[in-house]
């Protein structure tokens, strides 16, 4: 009796009898379908990313209703309007990342003193904001961290000798360098409390009073307490108590004309509880900060706009670039200009305001359309001799002085109601110097140009969250591959055509390599990286998820970034190199013999050289650990010092130990 074949056997038989073209066609359809799905997924991800970093102002995102197009009773179109008198305007200055140092750049201190005595005297700001990193606090080798009292004395003496605090309100706050290696605010080496002008630790609210209203300046102090040595205080942290205090300041600021928030860290480098620090400052016109130093010159301009409309304006450093910023509130409209030390004249166009920096949800933009005069602030150490104005290439004439540094010129805003226009101002002084300032402006409702994607990504991304996700993914990928090949069955002999598969099976089935690499990667993910003096006189332990210091815990942030670098530039390459080495040994090669194979010598030398460079990088990391955190941290570092020794042992054994054997469906023999 003939029994029918089981269903799975019939399907297999059909596939065997199917014409080759039919099988190829089905494979092509599957590939095409996979590509379509992948394309749709990428399109969705791209759309989400672009929408997330769309920094053009949207009315639905604003905390207040826009004022530019409302009726006559609204703030946006009610008087006073910008005219030809020196009223309803004040200006102030920001400087950041001064980094007074006893070891580097001998011109930094005298230049800063000249800025305090001469530049501030010329500009005559109502107040000066020094937004952190007042001193450098590094050792002579640039590796260690140490608060030098002489640096703080130099900073204090510059303020004192210049008498700048007698001429303006000087508000200086701490940056991460000012908190290096300080266990508590009462520590004797917390020189900020002794030598700064402000001497206020923590966030605070300062109200600047003028005849035409009050203006709030809210400080966001996210510096760490305790403050570990570098680099683990690159990110700031705000706890719930600090966020509640900022919430109180925000409520108080709503009663003033406008509010400015300022701090050292960019919001992208602040760890804060939900809903986050950006949401907390949503009522502000702008957040002023420093910290990123133009990313080494790669991003000379780092400005963006929060989803709720607040501008984030990172200022380049004084340390190397001698940058400072002049800002002005003119009829409650904020304008600013980033300037270079000793470059005169300094020019700031306050009306009409730059289109890219409009905040329709907070600023009374209707006043620009109702204004009667173009308004320009021009500062110079020599008398101003000419202020020439043109719009869209058409000359409007020369501005006249309205008193002080303000120059005005009659204009008709109704001629520019539609589209984007360009105003060009050329300012000349009696010393023969001239500066040209151009900016775009618009009088259309709800039209604000977007900022660049890269700028917005740097300033608006919570980098500690992104780094945490990438770190977890990289760890799971690295550990998962090891475990998978440990327990997967060795495939048929066709696997020998894939050196990667063979080498991973060899590595994962030899106990000495498998358990060593598994424990090393798990220690990178979960175990302590080192134990030592995180702050002088105070021991602590560093993990990927944070740092413990004498009973205090600092949430992980930069640790995830360093963990990713460790995985990508040492853990994974070490695993790959061992796989490559074992595969050569399995094929009967030795360290010498595989160099002399025809056509392979150059490629082989490159692989060995690459691994040697990675070992040198790991050795340098051990040296950094020794210089920064001391001898204890050097010897009690599983991820640095121990890992370097372990990698050398494993590499030596891979090339000098017994040649591994690869047998189907069984583990390779190895003496472990």
Share in β-strands = 15-25%
What would you call the structural class? alpha+beta
Strand order in space, largest sheet: 4-5-7-9-11-10
How would you describe the shape? globular
How many strands?
A: 25
**What is the helix content?**
25-40%
Low-confidence stretches: 59-74, 664-672
- For the residues shown, what is the average pLDDT? 88
> N- to C-terminal separation?
58 Å
Cα Rg: 32 Å
Largest sheet: 6 strands, mixed
| Total helical elements | 16
Question: Could you characterize the architecture of this molecule?
Answer:
A 6-stranded mixed β-sheet has the order 4-5-7-9-11-10, with helices on one face. Strands 3-2-1-12-13 form a 5-stranded mixed β-sheet. It starts with 6 loop residues before the first helix and ends in a 16-residue tail after the last helix. It has 672 residues and is an alpha+beta fold. Helix 11 (463-487) runs parallel beside helix 14 and helix 12 (499-508) crosses helix 14 (558-586). Mean pLDDT is 88; it is low at 59-74 and 664-672. The chain has 16 helices and 25 strands.
Q: Quick gist of this model?
A:
The protein has 672 residues and is of the alpha+beta class. The protein is built from 16 helices and 25 strands. Helix 3 links the parallel strand 1 and strand 2.
């Amino acid at each position: 009796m003939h029994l029918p074949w089981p269903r799975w056997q019939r399907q297999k038989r059909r596939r065997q009898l199917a014409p080759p073209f039919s099988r190829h066609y089905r494979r092509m359809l599957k590939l095409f379908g996979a590509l379509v799905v992948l394309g749709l997924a990428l399109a969705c991800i791209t759309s989400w990313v672009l929408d997330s970093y769309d920094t053009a102002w949207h009315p639905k995102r604003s905390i207040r209703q826009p004022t530019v197009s409302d009726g006559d009773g609204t703030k946006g179109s009610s008087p006073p309007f910008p005219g030809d008198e020196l009223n309803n305007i004040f200006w102030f200055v920001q400087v950041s990342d001064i980094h007074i140092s006893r070891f580097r750049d001998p011109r930094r201190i005298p230049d800063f003193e000249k800025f305090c005595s001469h530049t501030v005297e010329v500009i005559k700001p109502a107040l000066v904001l020094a937004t952190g990193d007042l001193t450098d606090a590094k050792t002579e080798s640039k590796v260690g961290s140490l608060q030098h009292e002489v640096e703080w004395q130099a900073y204090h003496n510059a303020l004192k000798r210049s008498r700048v605090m007698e001429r303006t309100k000087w508000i200086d706050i701490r940056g991460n360098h000012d908190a290096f290696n300080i266990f508590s605010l009462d520590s004797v080496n917390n020189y900020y409390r002794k030598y700064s002008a402000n001497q206020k630790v923590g966030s605070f609210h300062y109200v600047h009073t003028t005849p035409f209203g009050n203006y709030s300046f809210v400080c966001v102090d996210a510096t760490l307490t305790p403050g570990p040595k570098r680099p683990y205080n690159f990110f700031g942290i705000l706890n719930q108590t600090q966020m509640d205090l900022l919430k109180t300041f925000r409520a108080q600021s709503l009663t003033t004309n406008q509010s400015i928030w300022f701090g050292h860290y960019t919001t992208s480098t602040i760890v804060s509880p939900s809903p986050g620090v950006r949401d907390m400052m949503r009522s502000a016109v702008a957040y002023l900060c420093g910290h990123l130093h133009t990313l080494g010159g790669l991003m000379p301009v780092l400005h963006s706009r929060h989803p709720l409309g607040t501008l984030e304006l990172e200022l380049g450093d004084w340390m190397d670039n001698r940058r400072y910023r002049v800002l002005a509130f003119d009829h409650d409209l904020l304008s600013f200009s980033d300037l270079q030390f000793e470059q005169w004249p300094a020019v700031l166009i306050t009306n009409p305001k730059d289109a890219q920096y409009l905040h329709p949800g907070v600023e009374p933009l209707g006043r620009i359309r109702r204004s009667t005069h173009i308004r320009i602030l021009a500062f110079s150490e020599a008398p101003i001799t000419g202020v020439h104005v043109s719009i869209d290439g058409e000359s409007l004439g020369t501005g006249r002085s309205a008193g002080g540094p303000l120059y005005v010129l009659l204009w008709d805003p109704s001629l520019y109601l539609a589209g984007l226009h360009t105003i060009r101002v050329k300012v000349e002084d009696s010393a023969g110097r001239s500066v040209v300032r151009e900016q775009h402006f618009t009088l259309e409702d709800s039209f604000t140009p977007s900022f660049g994607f890269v700028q917005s990504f740097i300033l608006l991304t919570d980098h500690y969250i992104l780094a945490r996700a990438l770190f977890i993914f990289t760890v799971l990928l690295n550990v998962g591959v090891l475990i998978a090949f440990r327990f997967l069955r060795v495939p048929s002999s066709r696997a020998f055509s894939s050196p990667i598969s063979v080498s991973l099976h060899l590595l994962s089935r030899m106990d000495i390599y498998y358990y060593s690499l598994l424990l090393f990667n798990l220690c990178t993910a979960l175990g302590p990286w080192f134990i030592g003096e995180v702050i002088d006189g105070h021991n602590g332990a560093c993990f990927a998820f944070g740092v413990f210091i004498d009973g205090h815990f600092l949430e992980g942030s930069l640790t995830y970034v360093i963990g990713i670098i460790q995985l990508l530039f040492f853990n994974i390459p070490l695993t790959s190199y061992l796989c490559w080495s074992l595969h050569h040994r399995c094929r009967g090669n030795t360290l010498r013999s595989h160099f002399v194979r025809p056509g392979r010598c150059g490629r082989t030398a490159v692989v060995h050289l690459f691994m040697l460079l990675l070992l040198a990088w790991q050795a340098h990391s051990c040296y950094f650990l020794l210089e920064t955190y001391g001898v204890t941290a050097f010897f009690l570092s599983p991820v640095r010092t121990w890992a370097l020794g372990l990698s050398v042992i494993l590499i030596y054994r891979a090339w000098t130990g017994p040649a591994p054997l690869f047998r189907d469906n069984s583990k390779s023999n190895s003496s472990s």
